[in-house]
Write a structure and sequence with these properties.
Elements: H1 2-27, H2 32-41
Length: about 40
């Protein structure tokens, strides 16, 4: 059960990071490269 909780927490954190990244991309198109790198890692 502990493992499941950790996975859920990681998923929530990833979602938050993705939203923040998307907002940053809109502000600075140059950050698009960072989004691609993050996708590969995710």
């Amino acid at each position: 059960m502990s493992k499941t909780v950790i996975l859920t927490d990681s998923k929530q954190r990833s979602s938050e990071n993705f939203q923040t990244t998307l907002i940053d991309v809109e502000l600075q198109p140059n950050l698009r490269l960072l989004v691609l790198q993050t996708k590969g890692k995710g």
